[in-house]
């Protein structure tokens, strides 16, 4: 009897820890990604093509935190009785997979944007517009939904009665899910890796040829910084997307720590993205500080670099000296 009580206590403790971890990630994802969205609405200077794609990713993470994370607590951890059966299981699993592909496709488009900005330079900058960025966001949502729900039409005939969501998910994966991983995951990541290598080679070859003080050099430097930030975002998703697949193959015991971490790491990525932006993007940091000071104001963050500020200071000093010289000439 004591052994049974100890097992029950241990099981309840694991549930509390699992729920606490999901709750922390859920709150962090909602708060962090909401700040990214608010900053784009508040500051016009942040409304660039890559930032629109970044905000779309933030919006995806918010929806994922609001819907999939509470659902995971209910169907995976506590296995509530009413979350079972054919229709409910199909909806929960497809909704979870949809956000996986939304993230993958959005990161692919972000990488393509940096590829165009750095490899093709001025030709891409003269071609890209805000409207085209919005069209890219629309394409991400349409293509992700078409891919996900097109895939899951193959699971409409699976009927396990009142079986829980987890069993339906296992059957979906065995019947058709594995066949869609390569085109849905491997192909986009291969594209991102190839483009990333090309970006690195381009930067390496041209870094010595372009002056850092020229307008082209400054634009290239900004593009490289943005590419590094997006690169970290891609690496974070890769680590938190591939590792869970390995954990699923290692551990098949529902409720065990490796099995739980396979789901948890996917959700953790939603909270990691705002942290990457805040650490690697000075523009977001400055905008956030100004947002705290003037949440409803109209001022924009000063994004001038140190070199630009020094140049402006030197120009002002020269102008003042010229004015003094003209004054002295006039007095003579």
Automatic annotation (TrEMBL):
The keyword Nucleotide-binding does not apply. GO terms for molecular function: G protein-coupled receptor activity. SMART domains: 7TM_GPCR_Srsx. Its main location: membrane. One of its GO terms (cellular component) is plasma membrane. It holds the Pfam family 7tm_1. Residues 32-277 form the G-protein coupled receptors family 1 profile domain. Keywords: Cell membrane, G-protein coupled receptor, Glycoprotein, Membrane, Receptor, Transducer, Transmembrane, Transmembrane helix. It is a multi-pass membrane protein. InterPro entries: GPCR_Rhodpsn, GPCR_Rhodpsn_7TM. The chain crosses the membrane at residues 16-41, 53-78, 90-112, 133-156, 176-200, 229-247, 259-279. Coiled coil: none annotated. It is found in: Cell membrane. Belongs to the G-protein coupled receptor 1 family. This is G-protein coupled receptors family 1 profile domain-containing protein. It comes from Pocillopora damicornis (Cauliflower coral).
